[in-house]
Amino acid sequence: MRYIAVPLILFGISLAPGLSAAAPREARIVEIRGHVKGENAFVNFQLRNAFTPEMVEALKSGIEISFRTQVKVERVHRNWFDVTVGDLTVSRSVRYDALSRVYRLKRSDGEKLLPDIFSALDDMTRYEVVVPLRISAIPGRRYRALVRTRLDRVGLSEPLRSIIFFSSVWDVETDWGKGFLASP
Fold first, then answer.
1. Looking at residue 165, what is its pLDDT?
2. DSSP-derived 3-state class of residue 181
3. What's the mean pLDDT when you consider all of the chain?
4. 37 burial via Cβ count (<10 Å: 0-12, 13-18, 19+)
5. Gap between the Cα atoms of 160 and 154, Å rounded
6. What is the Cα–Cα distance from 153 to 169, expressed in whole angstroms?
7. Contact between residue 40 and residue 132 where contact means Cβ atoms under 8 Å apart
8. Among 44, 51, 45, residue whose Cα is nearest residue 27
9. 73 touches 136 (CB < 8 A)
10. Which of 53, 61, 75, 132 is deepest in the core (most CB within 10 A)?
11. What is the bridge-based pairing of β-strands 40-48 and 28-37?
12. 28-181 in CATH: which number?
């Protein structure tokens, strides 16, 4: 009996950190999809686990939070190197305006006023972008979108930038997410 119990206890201890509710969740890009048409690629994706509780509290107190997102579109070649045919960098920022009691979301298409924190976080993490292609899309060929997001520290105030340098709570950066795009 003791020979079975010891390995089971060790196995349980090795699984415990992964099952913990306090385990840190990494930010990642999910649900990458879209299509290419003519000289544009239409890419939709979501950013998950980007806002830590500390970041949400800072946002509620009026600190502006910005993300810079890189989107690349590649033409996929079988048994050969993939070629980047388009790329785009998109910036988004959100800030709580205590005077008007709304969240101000700044995107490339202008500013949007949002009534609550939930809609602000949702709009900060859902993307629909149009990436201009260097060449026209070829029907029937395979295309792939690669997406990466990181916290833009340039938009933060100087005291906050120096604090963030030493804090891993504000260290938000995703790996490259990949998803195939439909072609006509």
1. 47
2. strand
3. 81
4. middle
5. 10
6. 13
7. yes
8. 51
9. no
10. 75
11. antiparallel
12. 2.60.40.10
Long-range contacts of 121-127 (CB under 8 A, 24+ apart): 121/51, 121/56, 123/94, 124/47, 124/50, 124/51, 124/65, 124/67, 124/92, 124/94, 125/46, 125/47, 125/48, 125/50, 125/51, 126/46, 126/47, 127/43, 127/44, 127/45, 127/46, 127/47, 127/69, 127/90
Query: Other C-beta atoms within 10 Å of 26: how many?
Result: 11
**54: amino acid identity, one letter:** E
Structure tokens at 164: 């963030």
Name the residue ranges covered by the structural domains of the chain: 28-181
- In single-letter form, the type of residue at position 10 comes to L
Strand, coil or helix: 19? helix
Q: How far is CA 48 from CA 12, 36, 101, 118, 172, in A?
A: 28, 24, 26, 14, 11
Read off the DSSP letter of residue 155: G
Structure token pair of residue 31: 């649900």
The token duo for 126 is 């859902």
pLDDT digits (tens, 9 = 90+) for 19-52: 444 445 788 889 999 999 999 999 999 999 888 8
Between 19 and 182, the higher pLDDT residue: 182
The number of angstroms, rounded, from the C-alpha of 170 to the middle of its chain's C-alpha atoms is 14
Q: How far apart (Å, rounded) are the C-alpha atoms in residues 47 and 148?
A: 9
CA distance 106 to 18: 36
d(CA 75, CA 73): 7
